[in-house]
């Protein structure tokens, strides 16, 4: 049998290994800018609040920016980089082109933050704070954001095409795309609740409302009235992802899924007789459970492959590398 001293040595070694492994994941912290940029949070929130007061949908667009950043090689601000004649970024990737928006608001926030603490706060962290503020302002939960990410000096259009799931995905494709990011079935359903706010273009739901049968007829009538059957007509016409409640962050999205009022094919996949149905029922019954799980999952999403230490940079402008 091992002596007490070799036993405690083994425990100590184990603790060190755990710390080392844990250390590479736990580099983000909620007080990262507490000393270097104490005015950060009020500076960001003021502009997010004004942008949403001007246009409610902007809150949704800003939340989506964070998702589309984190799913493409980690939360590193890569989707904010503009294309140039010698550089192809992610803005014209299939899921983003003609669709992702809010870049001007991010620019305004970045300039305001540069004024109070120059070259301190990354664009990647700004996206995390902006997403948090947007959800809170539209009536959703609040949480402490983990910070300390740095900005990518590269972007990948191919990764944006491949890593962000399209609305034509079936449930198993959605599950594996989240699994590829280290996110669980529960994370998928909770994060998908982001569709409680915002809008989609006719081109993304036409095939569903005209061809699918797992669809509420009164909902279909309303959706069709704004999205003609013929491709090319009204393609960019918008409809709320959460029927009649697309401007408030609540659990009605899940209640609507149970009523077969999912706008996108992929939305209704979450409640179609499969393994995610029970989560949907839980969130439809309890907004507080949805809020609690959404917070846990969006913090987990924010932990995807951040650049830290001396990797990446702190961009001066979010649209281009320094
Ligand atoms: C799981 C797979 C997902 C798919 C297939 C998907 C797909 C889509 C599509 C097709 C649109 C409409 C885009 C357009 O028509 O221009 C959209 C909008 C949106 N998505 Fe998702 N999404 C997913 C997950 C998420 C997640 C995890 C979040 C955030 C937590 C999110 C937040 C949003 C928001 C807020 C909008 C509305 C944006 C606006 O109005 O500007 N989505 N999504
Ligand atoms: C306010 O929203 C409108 C769209 O509703 C947009 O055209 C305009 O640029 C916005 N203004 C500001 C200052 O964000
Ligand atoms: C990404 O998708 C867009 C739009 O379909 C396409 O034009 C582009 O060539 C794709 N890029 C890569 C690198 O695969
Ligand atoms: C889901 O879609 C994938 C391709 O994206 C296909 O291989 C698979 O058979 C589909 N699964 C079901 C259950 O329809
Ligand atoms: C409905 O499905 C048929 C057969 O797959 C297809 O030809 C047609 O384009 C679809 N209609 C719409 C509006 O997507
Ligand atoms: C697009 O939406 C607008 C506003 O709802 C509507 O007036 C117009 O008829 C729609 N276009 C088509 C082709 O349905």
TrEMBL record:
Cofactor(s) required for function per UniProt: heme b; Ca(2+)
Keywords in alphabetical order: Calcium, Disulfide bond, Glycoprotein, Heme, Hydrogen peroxide, Iron, Metal-binding, Oxidoreductase, Peroxidase, Secreted, Signal
Known EC number: 1.11.1.7
GO terms for MF: heme binding; lactoperoxidase activity; metal ion binding
Keyword DNA damage: no
Record-listed substrate binding positions: 165
Statement: the UniProt record of this protein carries the keyword Cell wall biogenesis/degradation: no
Domain Plant heme peroxidase family profile: 27-322
Protein name: Peroxidase
Residue numbers marked as site, Transition state stabilizer: 64
InterPro entries, alphabetized: Haem_peroxidase, Haem_peroxidase_sf, Peroxidase_pln, Peroxidases_AS, Secretory_peroxidase
Lineage: Eukaryota, Viridiplantae, Streptophyta, Embryophyta, Tracheophyta
GO cellular component: a single term: extracellular region
One GO process term, biological-process aspect: hydrogen peroxide catabolic process
Binding site for Ca(2+) 2: 196, 242, 250
Cell location: Secreted
Cofactor remark: Binds 1 heme b (iron(II)-protoporphyrin IX) group per subunit.
Annotated catalysed reactions: 2 a phenolic donor + H2O2 = 2 a phenolic radical donor + 2 H2O
Organism expressing this protein natively: Eucalyptus globulus
Functional summary from the UniProt entry: Removal of H(2)O(2), oxidation of toxic reductants, biosynthesis and degradation of lignin, suberization, auxin catabolism, response to environmental stresses such as wounding, pathogen attack and oxidative stress. These functions might be dependent on each isozyme/isoform in each plant tissue.
């Amino acid at each position: 049998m091992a002596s007490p001293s070799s036993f405690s040595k083994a425990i100590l070694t184990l603790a060190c290994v755990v710390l080392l492994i844990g250390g590479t994941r736990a580099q983000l912290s909620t007080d990262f800018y507490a000393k270097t940029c104490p005015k950060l949070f009020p500076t960001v929130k003021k502009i997010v609040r004004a942008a949403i007061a001007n246009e409610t949908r902007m809150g949704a667009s800003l939340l989506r920016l964070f998702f589309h950043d984190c799913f493409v090689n980690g939360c590193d601000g890569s989707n904010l980089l503009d294309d140039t004649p010698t550089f192809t970024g992610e803005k014209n990737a299939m899921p983003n082109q003609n669709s992702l928006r809010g870049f001007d608001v991010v620019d305004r926030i970045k300039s305001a933050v540069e004024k109070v603490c120059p070259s301190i706060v990354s664009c990647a962290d700004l996206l995390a704070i902006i997403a948090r503020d947007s959800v809170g302002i539209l009536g959703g939960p609040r949480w402490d954001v983990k910070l300390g990410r740095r900005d990518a000096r590269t972007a990948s259009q191919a990764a944006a095409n491949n890593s962000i799931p399209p609305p034509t995905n079936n449930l198993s494709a959605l599950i594996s795309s989240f699994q590829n990011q280290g996110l669980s079935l529960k994370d998928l359903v909770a994060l998908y609740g982001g569709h409680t706010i915002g809008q989609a273009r006719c081109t993304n739901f036409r095939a569903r409302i005209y061809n699918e049968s797992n669809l509420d007829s009164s909902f279909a009538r309303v959706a069709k009235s704004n999205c003609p059957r013929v491709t090319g007509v009204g393609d960019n016409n918008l409809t709320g992802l959460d029927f009649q409640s697309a401007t408030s962050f609540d659990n009605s999205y899940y209640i609507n899924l149970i009523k077969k009022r999912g706008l996108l094919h992929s939305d209704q996949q979450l409640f179609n007789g499969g393994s995610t149905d029970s989560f949907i029922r839980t969130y439809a019954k309890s907004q507080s459970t949805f809020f609690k799980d959404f917070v846990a999952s969006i913090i987990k999403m924010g932990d995807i492959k951040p650049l830290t230490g001396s990797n990446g940079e702190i961009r001066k402008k979010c649209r281009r590398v320094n």
